[in-house]
Design goal:
Layout: H1 2-52
Length: about 80
């Protein structure tokens, strides 16, 4: 009777591992692989964008006047 109980317990443990733990492990590994692939594609896109477009020009406020300066005389 003792051996039958061990065999039954072993069978239930085997079913639990094969039907629950393996799929969870495989799904987690699959999601991680997809996340890594997406991150790699985004880095490649960023590299392509940065190499294909020139850097934006730097604007300095001292070199370009924004408007004319009109001097007014003070009236008393």
């Amino acid at each position: 009777m003792k051996y039958v109980l061990y065999i039954l317990l072993g069978y239930l443990l085997f079913r639990f591992i094969t039907r629950f733990l393996f799929p969870v492990y495989k799904t987690g590994r699959h999601i991680k692989r997809q996340f890594d692939d997406m991150q790699q594609r985004m880095q490649e896109n960023m590299r392509q964008q940065s190499s294909s477009t020139p850097p934006p020009p730097q604007n300095t406020s001292s070199s370009k006047p924004e408007g004319e300066y009109i001097e007014f005389e003070e009236v008393k």
